Amino acid sequence: MNLPAPRRIAYLSGTRADFGLMVSTLRAIAADPRLSLGLIVTGMHLSERFGMTVREIEAEGLPIDARVDVDVDTATGAAMAANIGHMLVGFVQALQAQRPDILVLLGDRGEMLAGALAAIHLGIPVVHLHGGERSGTVDEPVRHAISKLANLHLVATGAARDRLVRMGEDGDTVHVVGAPGLDGLIDLATLDRAGLCRSVGFDPGHPLALLVYHPVLHEADEASDQVSGLVEAALACGLQVLALMPNSDAGSDVVRETLKQARRDGRIALQTHLKRPAFVSWMAAADVMLGNSSSGIIEAASFGTPVVNVGSRQNLRERNVNVTDVPAHAGEVRAALKAALQHGRYPRSNLYGDGRSGGRIVELLATTDWSSHRLAKCNAY
What we know:
Blueprint: E1 7-13, H1 16-31, E2 35-42, H2 54-59, E3 64-68, H3 77-98, E4 102-106, H4 110-121, E5 126-129, H5 139-149, E6 152-155, H6 158-166, E7 174-176, H7 185-188, H8 193-200, E8 208-212, H9 223-236, E9 240-244, H10 252-262, E10 268-271, H11 276-285, E11 288-291, H12 294-298, E12 307-310, E13 323-326, H13 330-343, H14 357-367, H15 372-375
Parallel strand pairs: 1-2, 1-4, 2-3, 4-5, 5-6, 6-7, 8-9, 8-11, 9-10, 11-12, 12-13
Helix pairs in contact: 1-14, 3-4, 4-5, 9-10, 9-13
């Protein structure tokens, strides 16, 4: 009996963040005999400045079918827009060479938009994860644009599903699978507080903050003042701060330089990149998470870690009870940090899923009927 050839799945990855969220699911795809996996790698993964994180993909033993270089050193809105064009050309070439049966994309960054545009013109079905969510800033319209180009939607929550249906997506193409970044998350936190603190010269008996702050495109001119306010507030609360360097978006250079200046205070330690187990361990060990990362919104609740979410970047995203939202003003951030430290940890409960997304995703990738009507998209209303 001849078995059907495995479906060829391409996953596009541009940052440490999306790869970390997907690595458990990518392992499951690679292990399923019905599927064959290849990665297209681009963006910050290929930059020494951002940790050359393609090495982590290589260390996982996952196959890389193509590498598409772009300029991630010029941190302006114009460079971000131009990179979409450069990546589009590179992705067309990669997809034509590999001819995958499905392209999988996650989230809302420009590389995912370029991938969706390339695939739809080549007749390759697009599967989009984490669509239907709200977050304000440029991320939200880019995310919705990817959703309108996608053929199958694997969303994290029921509210995200409802939103996509209201946007005109066929309800039969929208499946609630949960957030893949929660899969295996608890088991990843293998490093204890004492060891983490020892690695950066902190005192484990004093309160700890994990700071992750990325610039917002339309507020790039304010980025330095914003991150300075966060650092000022954290130090005023007596916190030791482990700060992760920002992504490559417009405004990131001034955030980077501001954090380097703040490092002169011995209570602040900087990391260009943390491997996923180390990052998750810090999230679990910290007394509070501070900044505007989606990891604070989606993942931190699984550890009950209080989160002070600052500014507009995650505006209107669904919240767990551990999240407090404040504007990027030092006084209000300081008050929120004090309240978070006084409250302490929250119950471990997470509206974004049950940690079993990967199996659902694999099954849908393996069994979805890609007949022509699914590829001929039109609004359902």
